[in-house]
Amino acid sequence: MFTGIVEELGEVTAVEKLDDASRFRLRGPVVTEGAKHGDSIAVNGVCLTVVDLGEHEFTADVMAETLNRSSLGALAAGSRVNLERPMALGGRLGGHIVQGHVDGTGRIIERTVSEHWEIVKISLPAELTRYVVEKGSITVDGVSLTVVDAGTDHFTISLIPTTLALTTLGIKGPGDPVNLEVDVIAKYVERLLGGTAAAQDPGDPVA
């Protein structure tokens, strides 16, 4: 489990294309400290397993399903990525409960610059609309954020200078893809209520 508090802005150093997967080599001195084979590291919000370790680098295999459902397929050598190790038992939950299981992707629509922060508008897939609410939690590229405004096909977030400086959200522009993970609690509530919303169109009222 992760918390959505990015520890490090890492870099993809190599991508090897396989028949039905890709092998990524990523640089991250912070997240590789004390890491070992089989550990989990979130890369832009996607939980990956460490295969090999080198000098401040690690290698991870990404299967086709993950490449198709996330923005990792668009990464290349030189791409910057958000990195986070799993939360240690007994650690502080600084963000919110993040599984590292991407629910879909959106694209940055526009950025509005203010003196001390930025408002970023991001497209929202129709199947995720019902899980996103104003002042609720959402994970964008592995970053735990609070929803400012929730529309039917978009939402907005507010980014402080620290987030802009230490994550990929400070360097992405309109048209760039981002990974989205909605609050898992909302999905459990839906399931406990009988999954009625899942069987309806996102715009239909829940009985």
Strand content: 35-45%
The strand order across the widest sheet is 4-3-7-1-2-6-5
DSSP summary, beta strand count = 13
Can you give the mean pLDDT? 90
Instruction: Tell me roughly what share of residues is in helical segments.
Output: 10-25%
Report the C-alpha radius of gyration, rounded. 17 Å
Low-pLDDT parts are 197-207
Report the total helices: 4
N-to-C SSE string, H for helix and E for strand? EEHEEEEHEEEEEEHEH
The biggest beta sheet, please? 7 strands, antiparallel
| Alpha carbon gap, first and last residue | 33 Å
**Structural class by SSE content:** mainly beta
- Using the alpha-carbon principal axes, give the shape: globular
Structure overview:
This protein has 207 residues and is mainly β. Helix content is 12%, strand content 38%. The protein has helices at 29-32, 64-69, 161-166, 184-192, and strands spanning 8-17, 21-27, 40-43, 46-49, 52-53, 57-63, 80-84, 104-113, 118-123, 137-140, 143-150, 154-159, 177-182. It has a 7-stranded antiparallel β-sheet. The chain has a 6-stranded antiparallel β-barrel with strand order 8-9-12-11-10-13.
